[in-house]
Structure formats: structure tokens, C-alpha cells
Amino acid sequence: MAQKLNKKLVFVVGSLLIALVVGGAGVLLIRYRYDAERHIRAGDQALAAGDFTKAAESYGRAVQKKRTNVAYLEKFKDSTLKIRSTTENDARERYGQYLQALASLARAERSNLERWRTYLDALVEQAEAQGSVSAWKSIADTCGELTLASQPGSTGQSVAKVYSGYSNFRRIDSLDDAERAGIAPKLEEAVSDASLTPAERDLAYGTLARLAVVDLARARGSGSDPRIAAASKACDAAIALAEKNSPNGLQTAIALFERAILDARGNASDPKLLEKIDALAASAEAAKPDGMEMLNLAAVLSRGGAEGTKAAAALLASYNAANPDALMQRRLRALLVRPFDRAEALKEIDAALAIERPATGIVAASY
Asked: Any idea what DSSP says for residue 248?
């Protein structure tokens, strides 16, 4: 009897031990599989050693396990920005990962408006560089997401209206009549929000003025005197409003310049056009815009004929002197000065070729 009990006891105890071992191993396996911290530690070590690619990969694994962890996303984003890719495809992939990290940060902290502002600014930079309809549309789509994430009547919704209005204006030729008609009302609603930044306010008022210039150009093309008179009055009012509310804004200066081009009717020597060329260049010098905005301004100025092109080249020369590694700006300046100063164009090309491949960003993705 005792022997039977001992056998039964041994069997029960053995079964329990086996269960504990298997269960413990399973727990350890699960913890190992989902332990994001070990990837963070590996990333920190790689970062300290200067291996940014390995660091980003380790942080990326941690993000895969905890997709809404802000600290992990920040580490992944920051390390990705330090990578100098050796191929164009890798540079584009890294840039895409950077943008995705910004998107994830905004979604992880849906009520943090600064996260959305940073993400939207990055998308505008991308759209300025690519110039594609799809890039501008993606901004409008993101604004829809921000609208849903914000409280009704909040500054978040106002910011969404500003960026949505601007992005729709930049792809206006792809919009139908109803979509075009919807741009101005949203911008007009947004400017009533006193919490907008000066840049956002300028973007709103400047876009309203530029939109009015486009409408005036279309009215003149129609040949209808009543339509021209109405559009001219509306354009004057929109520009006056922009000058009053954003007198030193770049978008306001661009609107004034574009109106001068329209009124010059092809006369590149028109005194008012030359005046607005100088005014826009001066506004740009004072504002000290970042890389992609500087490229956009130079491209806008170059539409003002020979004098506009020279003003754009001078603006880029000043920017390049302060930013020796301005690869895209040097390329554009070489293109602009080539017709009248071939030696200077070659100098800019040589300087561009000597620049080290940039770290992750829009420039590397366009390298």
C-alpha cells in the first residue's frame, strides 16, 4: 500500500515539476519576446558607439512591441535622423520611417497640438520638394485626422483648417468647383482664432490673398467685364486684409508679388513688378526661412523675369554663404545663374558635388 502511495506521490510531484518548468520557460519566452526594454538597451549601446543604423534598428524593434510608447518613438526618430545612407533607396526608406515616427507621435499624443504641427510642417516640406498633387493631398488627409482628434472649436481644428486650405490651394488645378469654393470659408473661420501662431496666421491670410489673385486671373481670362470687376474688388480686399493682419509675412509678400505679375501683363520691366520683387526679396532676407521654404521663395521670385531671377539668385547666394552644405539651394542657384554667369554656375555645381551625403531628411531622400 505504501509503495503504491509513493508511486502516486512521485507521479504527482513529477507532473507538477514538469508543469512548473514548462510554464516557467513559457513565461520567460513570452517576456523575452515582448521585452522592449532589451531592444532599448541595445539601441542605447549602439548609439553611444556611434552606430546610428544599428541603434535605429534596435529602437525600431522596441517600437514594434510598444507602438504608442512616446519615449521609444522619440529614440527611433532621433537615431534615424543621424543615419547617412549610402544609397538613394535607403535614404528614401529612412526618410519615410522618420515621417512615420512623426505621425505615430502625433497619434500617440492626440491632444498634443505641437506634435501635429511638427508633423504637418514636415509634410509641407515634403510636398514643397516633390511638388506632386498626392503629396499636397496627404496634408489635407492628415488635417482631417487632426480635426477628428481635436475638440470642436479648438485651436487644433483651426490649425487643421489653415493647413488644409493651404494644401488645397497648392493643388487647386486638381480640385473641382465645389472643392475650390470650400477653401476660402475654412481659412476665414480659422483666422478668427487668436491662438494661431504668426506663421499660421500669415499662411491663412496669404493663401486667401493668393487665392483671390488666381480668381482674378481666371476672371480676366473669361473676358467678362462684370466678373473682372467683382474679382478685382475681391482681390484688393483680400490683399488689404493680408497686409493689415500679416504685414511682414512671406505669404502676404508672395501674394503682392503675384498680383504685380498679373497686372504687369507680361511686361517684366513694369515698375510695380520690380518694386514687389525687391519687397519679396527683402521679406525673405528678414524672415530667414528654412531650406525648403527658401527654395520655394526662389522659385516664386524667378517667375518675375530676368530681375526676378537675379533676385532669387542673390537670395540663394546669401543663404548658401550661411549654410555651406545647402545642396539643393546650390543646385537651384547654379540653374538660375547659368544664363548670365556660367562661371558662377560651375562654381556652385562644384561646391554641391563636394558636399558630403546628408543625413536622413528631405535632402537625402532627393539626393
From this structure: T
